[in-house]
Amino acid sequence: MSFLDQIFAQLDASADQVLLTELRENGNVSCTGRQLLSRIAQARGSLGSRGLRRDSRVALLAANGIDWIAIDLAIMAEGLVVVPLYSRQAPSELVAMMKDSSPALICCGDRALRDAVVAVWPESPPSILVDDMFKQPAPAEASSGARTGVSAPENRADSDCVAIIYTSGTSGEAKGAMISAGNVGHILKCTSERLDILIDHRPGQDRVYQWAPLNFAAAWITTLTSLLRGSSVFMNTDLARIATELRTVEPEYFVNVPALLERVRRAVDEQIWKTGGVVRMMYLRAKAAYPRKHEGNARLADSIWLGLASRLVFPTIRKKMTGSNLKALICGSAPLTVETQLYFMMLGIPVLQVYGLTETTAICTMDDPRHVEPGRVGTAIPGIEMKLGENQEVLVRGPNVFPGYWRRPTETAKVLRDGWFSTGDQGEVNERGNWKIVGRIKNLIILNSGHNIAPEPLEDEMGNRLSGAQQVVLMGNGRSYLSAIVTGNVGADQVQSVLDAVNAHLPHYKQIRAFHILAEPFTIESGLLTANGKLKRDQIAQRFQAEVEAMYAVRQAV
């Protein structure tokens, strides 16, 4: 049974249960299993009426919502290939990806978005608005009776491509990763089994919060897993309301990224500082004590402060943050610092890490909730092999590895050799098979002394120490020392103080000896962040070339 058959069967079994809820300021919109199957059937009817050939690509360009999920499933169920795109990206970038994938049809969320695409690409293929996908009457069997009876999905072999998901493109144009039915089926089985451990096989629906754009592989896999499990998914439609919604929804778990956890951590620090008094004293002393306890260097009074904070301070923070149901935060997309993971563990909130790439169907490793090792991303999931190659590069082989990039055989050959996928990530693994990701190999800074430096750990450490900083980007390729660009509301004295503290424990070649502050942070709209918020390092270096040169000119003059 294919993953689509399994999902349809679960929707049928959950016909009268609410599975999806769009969280809206003017009233939530909910959808049962029967209603979702009906929406899928309508969308399939609309697609079928267009005479599209099997395996034709259909671009899905819309904001998160129930209709996005219905169209996504309808495209795959019709034997077509979905090409999910990020509606917030610049029209020129969207058009570049659509020209590459050559869709037979574009599904647009609204007229403004469709018009923006047409303005850049006048000869674009036919398009249809999301609302118009559901104008076909729902099949009678989809809206009556105890069973839905909606027609089964088209047969899909494991080798069939069901989606083309475009990678972030941090240092070049995005590439379309072809994801097969077999890739998705294997990952959904693994994620569901791991969630069974987290939930402890509790009967009833999981409560899941979904905020990340569904065109990203991790968010897509999370949503498909939720549908497969019959979970109750609450979908954010306004990023400004995440904090409020988490308290209202009280999810048992949700997938997030390190940047979000860092913001939450800083917000709590700021609120506690304003609160002052005994609460602040207990919080600060417990916060200092917990890392020492984890490292086995606890002082005599540490257990007292941690005990007091655990009874009097941390429960209030947890409840205000996510409610009372939370089993764990699931974190991926980028490396999470040990300090941040320990911080949430101190509050009594487990953080489970996941590691993977679009090319590995979002997942290679997952933390086992029973054996979490802070600073590491878990062991390889069942059926997946991982090893280290040249320069400590992480190599992956298994049924989760994609068949290749769309119409890019040369690029595919560079990363797939003898079944092993070269991730481009530098890692290490301990005797328990627990992996740690150090950084991206292509991001390595090579000084003129020959020293190779992974910038991410140093950037994370500076960012964690710099209250008000949005991003830290290290420079230094071919130079004699490292420098940093810091964005956000920070002062020169503050940055210098942090640099002094960070440099104190670093070897000379890793010390950061100059910096430049930018008030405006890098954004997706400015072209300096990818669609999922990663730094476009090459573009940043090019855009601020004069500022970088000035950092080295000043230092050399001194």
- How widely separated are the two ends? 70 Å
Largest sheet: 9 strands, mixed
Please report which band the strand proportion falls in: under 5%, 5-15%, 15-25%, 25-35%, 35-45% or over 45%. Answer: 15-25%
For the biggest β-sheet, the strand order reads 2-1-10-9-11-12-13-14-15
CA-based shape: globular
Q: Briefly, what CATH class of the largest domain? A: Alpha Beta
As residue ranges, the low-confidence spans are 142-147
Kindly identify the CATH topology of the largest domain: Rossmann fold
Q: How many beta-strand elements?
A: 26
Q: What is the helix content?
A: 25-40%
Domain count, please report it: 3
Count of DSSP helices?
18
| Integer average pLDDT | 91
CATH architectural type of the largest domain: 3-Layer(aba) Sandwich
Evaluate the radius of gyration.
24 Å
CATH superfamily of the largest domain: ANL, N-terminal domain
Q: Would you tell me the structural class of the helices and strands?
A: alpha/beta
Verbal overview:
The protein has 558 residues and is of the alpha/beta class. 39% of the residues lie in helices and 21% in strands. The chain has a 9-stranded mixed β-sheet, sandwiched between helices. Strands 16, 17, 19, 20 and 21 form a 5-stranded antiparallel β-sheet that branches.
